[in-house]
Specification:
single chain; ABC transporter involved in vitamin B12 uptake, BtuC; two-stranded antiparallel ribbon
Length: 295
C-alpha cells in the first residue's frame, strides 16, 4: 500500500475529501453570514437554525408531499428565505440604529425558539434523507473511491459561492448593495429602495443557509441540533476570514475544512480544536481577519 509521510494514501485522501465536504458547508454558511453582516451589519445567530430549517423543510417536502431532492434545492431556499424576510421586517428592522448586541441577542433567541419547537415535534434523534438515485454510488479514482454525492456537494457549493462573490463584487447590483451600507441616503436619492434591498439581502443570506441544509440532509441526519453543532465553527471561519468579507468566507471555509481533515490524519486529538487555535492566532496577529479591512 502506497504511503505519504507514513500515512496510507487512501486514508489521507479520504480525510481530505471529508475536509473538503465540511469546508463546502463552512463556506456556504459563512458566506451567508458574511453577506448579512457585511451589508446589514447584523450578527445573525439564527443562521444555524435556518440551516436546520432548510434540512427539515426538504425532509417534510419529501415525506409529506413526495417532492424530491432536486425540486427541494429550488423550493427550500425560497421558502426559508421568505421566513427570513418576515423576521427582518417584523423584528430586525427595529434594531438597526441600536447597538449590535441587541441584534445578536434577538437572533440568538429566535434560534433557541426554532430549535426547541423542532426538538419537541421530532425529538432529538436524527431523520434520514435519501441520496437522489442519480448521485448514488461512486467513482474509483485509483488512489481513492469518490462517492458521487460528495463530489456533487463540493462542485455545487463552490459554484454557488463564486456566483455570489461575482454578483456582489462585479455587478451593478452588488455596487448598489455595497454603497447602501456606506451611504444609504445617497443610494436612495438615485431611486433605489434601500429598505427593500436590505430585506431581500437578508432573505438571500438566509436562503444560502437553507440551501446548505438541503445539501447536508443526505450526508448528516436531519436533526434539530444540526445547526447548533455547526454554527460556532462557522462563526470562527467568518472571524478568521474577516467579518463581512465574501472572498474571505469562501477561501477560509474551504481552507479550514482541508486543514481540519489533515489534522485528523496527523494529529487526531487536535482535530476538534484546530480551527479555534487558528482563530486565536489570527486575532492576535490580524484582528480584522485574513481578508478583512482594518478600520
Amino acid at each position: 500500500m502506497t504511503e505519504i509521510f507514513g500515512v496510507p494514501t487512501q486514508a489521507l485522501f479520504g480525510q481530505l475529501l471529508i475536509g473538503l465536504i465540511n469546508g463546502s458547508f463552512y463556506a456556504l454558511l459563512s458566506l451567508g453570514l458574511a453577506v448579512i453582516f457585511g451589508l446589514l451589519n447584523i450578527i445573525n445567530f439564527t443562521h444555524g437554525a435556518q440551516y436546520m430549517l432548510g434540512a427539515f423543510t426538504a425532509y417534510l417536502l419529501l415525506t409529506k408531499l413526495g417532492i424530491g431532492y432536486w425540486w427541494a434545492l429550488l423550493i427550500v431556499p425560497v421558502v426559508v428565505g421568505a421566513t427570513g424576510v418576515v423576521i427582518e421586517r417584523l423584528m430586525l428592522s427595529k434594531l438597526y440604529k441600536l447597538d449590535h448586541l441587541y441584534g445578536l441577542l434577538l437572533t440568538f433567541g429566535i434560534a433557541l425558539i426554532l430549535q426547541g419547537l423542532f426538538r419537541n415535534e421530532f425529538g432529538s434523534s436524527g431523520q434520514p434523507y435519501q441520496i437522489p438515485d442519480v448521485l448514488q454510488g461512486g467513482i474509483n479514482l485509483g488512489f481513492m473511491f469518490l462517492p458521487k454525492y460528495r463530489g456533487w456537494i463540493i462542485v455545487a457549493s463552490l459554484a454557488v459561492c463564486l456566483a455570489t462573490w461575482y454578483v456582489i463584487e462585479r455587478t451593478k447590483l452588488g455596487a448598489y448593495l455595497r454603497a447602501a451600507t456606506e451611504n444609504p441616503q445617497l443610494v436612495q436619492a438615485f431611486g433605489v429602495n434601500v429598505p427593500r434591498m436590505i430585506t431581500l439581502t437578508y432573505g438571500f443570506g438566509v436562503g444560502l443557509a437553507a440551501l446548505a441544509g438541503v445539501m447536508a440532509a443526505p450526508v448528516y441526519q436531519v436533526s434539530p441540533q444540526m445547526g447548533a453543532d455547526l454554527i460556532i465553527v462557522v462563526f470562527a471561519v467568518v472571524v478568521i476570514g474577516g467579518m463581512g468579507s465574501i472572498l474571505g468566507s469562501i477561501v477560509t471555509g474551504f481552507g479550514l475544512g482541508l486543514i481540519e481533515g489533515l489534522t485528523k490524519v496527523f494529529y487526531p486529538e487536535a482535530s476538534s480544536t484546530v480551527i479555534f487555535i487558528i482563530m486565536a492566532i489570527v486575532l492576535l496577529v490580524r484582528p480584522a481577519g485574513l481578508f478583512g479591512t482594518q478600520k
